[in-house]
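Archive entry. Fields below.
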Amino acid sequence: MKSAVDQLQRAESHALPDVLFEVPSRAPSVSLPPLRQLSAVAEAPPRKGRTEQKSSRLGQLRLADVLVVVSLSVLAFVAACAAFPSWIAPYLPSDMRSDAILMAPGAGHWFGTDQFGRDVFSLVVYGARQSVLIGVFAVLLSCSAGVAIGLTAGYAGGWLDTALMRLVDIWMAIPSILLAIALSTVLGPSLINTIFAVSVTTIPRYARVLRGQALSVRNRPFIEASRAAGASHFAILRRHILPHCSAQIFVMATLGVGGSILIGSGLSFLGLGVNDERPDWGYLLTQGRSYLTVAWWTVTYPGLAITSLVISVNLLGDALRRRFDPRSAPR
Amino acid sequence: MLRRIVERFLVSLGVIVGAVTLIFLVLNWLPGDSATLIAGEDASAETIQHLREKLGTDRSLSDQYRAYLKGVLHGDLGTSYATREPVVQRLAAQLPATLELTFSACTLAILLGVGLGVLSVLHRGRWLDQAIQSLSLFLVSMPAFWLGILLILLFSVRLGWLPVIGNGGFLPLVLPVTTLGLVLSVPLQRMVRDGMLEGLHEPYVTTLRAKGLGERRIFYVHVLRNALTSTVTLLGVLIGESLSNAVIIETLFARQGIGRTTVEAIGQKDLPVVQGAILISSVAYVVVNLLVDISYTLIDPRTRLFIPKGTR
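PREDICTED_STRUCTURE:
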């Protein structure tokens, strides 16, 4: 509310300078009556929104905390599935029962069975590992490469900056899924290649943002001071600029995990991912698509698994962003 | 002004040449030999060598690159390994279907994005805003093909209103366009919402109120217009995303189009077609971005006054 009053005063000082001379603006008891008159007309709707917002933000904070707890539990469960699938899944992904083909969800098979008589719940549990590995390692790879490129470009400036950023422009001109498709076509389907293909497509995003960050920090006094003290460029990058951007990197990486899982699942949906006897979620969806009209459960649950994992990661990323960057707090 | 446009044009040209080179390198230089891919792992060395000569991949990389670049300049993207058809011809036949899908989806995305963005600003902090924000969280967190599958399950399988697959006509287009449009609308909606919420607290709004302008007019004419101006920059991203997602949507709905042709070509290890399809998408992306950039200079006079270096 204070800033709105300030703004009004500023606006008033242009329109009615003599009022401002008579009434000292620092004394609200005197200056408020005319202001309130004005604001009663002009400020009414936004003020209503603002007070409401304050009360709802308290409620929202509590909701946000609940959401973080929920997402952390989803992540913990998925991590458990990825690490020890045999403890959680009632069947092996290779268990085919010819007497239980395309059975609807029920007591014996919570998520039903697929066209080979495999238990969909067990398949989903066993499929978690691929998605988690793709999400985590693709981000580790692309984030470190992107950070290295971005910080170097932003800190160095000059021709190196121009050259690196042109490269990033070119990189970004190729639609991401198409680039990932091209890479995994050439490299062939395997987990490592999928991780590589996904990470290559996401590097430019990190590079762009981190370049901006480095650019805004590099002329600050503390950088100059350490340069004067004889620190090498590499030391400055590692000890000063990198820590300065760490919150941003952390938030971007968390949000990037969700995106990487989505690209990875898209690749395996197109048949370019890993498809050994331990099928991942995207591949389960491809297979289930052929039985869509008769067995909704074969396509619903793997998709639900991807979506709940990615939503949890994204909620966590949003929470981290709110924590580290108060400016982006929801209004 | 003109200098800036010419400059942008030259840069875009450079980006296109760079993209052609990058795609060429990815598909031809990385480990993985197309002759081996086509012949299969257990083909004899002679067969592979023969195939290599036939495809022209036995030449040095720089020779191949020079030949390819020369071809691209003459509008020749090579010959399909699978159908022996010129790539340009094969892709041109598929282009209308993809354009139909992406244009309709982008239109829907713009309508939805702006509409929902304005709606959530009008109801900010209340349940409708929360609902729209939750919807957009869901939409960015689910794979596009799963959204499509859910829509098929609901509207085709359960309700039987719409056909699952098919080409031509309006009805088969509804589900693919809805899927793609919903996915694409999220960034727009977020940008409109953020832009308007920010705009509502800018000094010029106060000035307009002081002038006695009605709230409705301030909201729709001034604040919305300002928010939309910056949304124009998103159009380029929108095109890139829609071309990316078209591959998946076309495959899911078994529609014709560049995307599905690409996926088929991958199955047949038909690299020239894959290369051509990616090339066309990249060029489209760069061209749209160039147009956006130029129109933005025309729409927003501020960008003409000073161009902060590196903030483009």
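CURATOR_NOTE: The two ends of chain A are 14 Å apart (CA to CA).
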